Amino acid sequence: MNRQNIRKNTKQNSGVFRKRRLVFPLAFVTAIAAACSVSQEIKAYFTPPEIFIAKPYIQLGQGRVDNSTVSHDILFLARNDKHEWELEYKSATSKGWKKAGPYVKRILEEQPLEAVTLFSFTIPGLPAGKSFSYRIFRDGLETFSTTAKAQVAFDQPFKFIVAGDLGAGSHGQRRIAQRIYSEAPDMWVMPGDLVYNMGLLSDYLARFFPIFNADEAKEAVGAPIMRSTLCIPVIGNHDIAQSIMLSPTNLNRMHDAMAFFQVWSAPLNGPLSRTEGPNVCPLAGSASRLSAFTQSAGKRFPQMANYSFDFGNTHWIVLDGNYYMDWSSPEMRKWVSDDLAKASSAKWKFATFHQPAFSTDLYHLKEQRMRLIVDELEKGGVDIVFAGHAHNYQRSFPLHFKPSTGKMNSDGTVDGTITLDKNYDSTTNTKPNGIIHIVTGAGGARLYSPTDSKEIVRMGDFLLKTISDCHSYTMCKVDGGNLSITQISDAGKVIDKFALRKD
Ligand SMILES: [Fe+2]
To answer: Which of 89, 203, 286, 443 makes a 20 to 30 Å CA pair with 433?
Structure first.
């Protein structure tokens, strides 16, 4: 999105901006713009001064409190200035508007005259599965309002979307945004590579928020998804600003890196609370840069790289598949095992991570790191794994994987035996024997060549289907023991469909 479009979009929803524009002398605005040394994309948001740098959006936050009550966060980005912010909400059961508690303010990026600040309100006590409204006031003036839907209750049918490899600023990404918005899902799970190319805050401001939280649904722009729909973040390799392979993320080189741990809010129930050591993304940079990042991220770094949550009658485990992860580590394996065992009341269990355990594509054929944890997922009763990384759609046969050594080879491969269930046909036999592995990485990034993929598919026999010629997303409907999964193209065409059933 260019600067002109950003300005136009922000103006559309900003009655207060029109009033305030008269108040700010042009010279003052110009001075701020000149002094601001942030990237061109961020600069566009500061000139002229708008109310929001990124408009409000809903996050799972703590999520389910009990079967009838949930707690969610509303976040937005604005300047670190002297304005007072308030949030009011009205749920299906409340008589009128209620004021949310005090907001948390975290400075994400400091610059000489401006600072990008994240404001976070928590809305507690929301009735599960019901719509609610929220509105935001700045200095007593209403600046934003919308409706959203809370996390569904245990016994409620619901639909969710899975699509990853997203924020490339492409036409395909905008078409996928239109499609997702039109589906009105209860949740959108995003299996990694959320924004290209480095997961920087400036990448989010240029290619994520303006498209997935646009003011209106327009193919040339995007759609207002994030303000109303729970988006679930999963970390990918493009989210950690790795400029040199297998080397620490350098916060001196990219000072707005690792925005994944700043802009999202997911349950902090993961296994890692230390900020360095095994299975934590290594960071480099000056002491002040590192300190600024860890302060703004708080417990989110690194805990939010791995977490779990319940949604309706499903349980989700979200895992980090990046290069620094060792899924043969007893600490990590125990956390997965314990988490899945605790979720014994869930009818369906899903795992999601970016780098697929089973994929046949030209670029990632030997990245098999996540096969190291597949045996624990099988033991824990996981039904489906959703991954991304390969920019296409792939569905495996239901399969079991028995690792031979439990260690990864130096080339990234993991040895073991794959057993396929070729009897599951989703109509007469709806009970797969093994996990179905889905790659749904066609959410916006440049698609992998279909010709290459066809060649590569011949090298593996665990795939039932590969589709690489269109951007697409996975639509899933859960109704008790019935689960239907449909892969839909950016043109709205069904390109794959299957179902599972449990008694
Ligand atoms: Fe990736």
So the answer is: 443
| Cα separation, 48 vs 32, whole angstroms | 9
Give 21-28's long-range contacts (Cβ < 8 A, gap of 24+): 21/48, 24/48, 24/49
Same domain, 270 and 125: no
Q: Are residues 136 and 47 in the same domain?
A: yes
Output the CA 245–ligand 1 centroid distance in Å: 13
Q: From 100, 117, 149, give the residue that closes a domain.
A: 149
CA of 164 to the centre of ligand 1 (A): 9
Which tens digits make up the pLDDT trace of 57-75?
A: 999 998 888 888 999 999 9
Query: What pLDDT, in 10s, does the model give residues 137-165?
Result: 999 999 999 999 999 999 999 999 999 99
Pairing verdict, β 104-110 and 115-127 = antiparallel
Alpha helices in 36-103 (DSSP H): 40-46
DSSP 380: T
Tens-place pLDDT, residues 471-485? 999 999 999 999 999
Determine contact, residues 410/481, Cβ cutoff 8 Å. no
Residue 188: exposure state from Cβ atoms within 10 A (0-12, 13-18, ≥19)? buried
Separation of CA 198 and ligand 1 centre (Å): 11
* 167 and 113 housed in the same domain: no
**Ligand 1 mean position, distance from CA 355 (Å):** 7
What are the structure tokens assigned to 392, written together? 């296409």
**Token pair of 179, please?**
């499609």
92 and 31 part of one domain: yes
166 and 107 within one domain? no
The SS3 call for residue 310 is strand
pLDDT of residue 6: 33
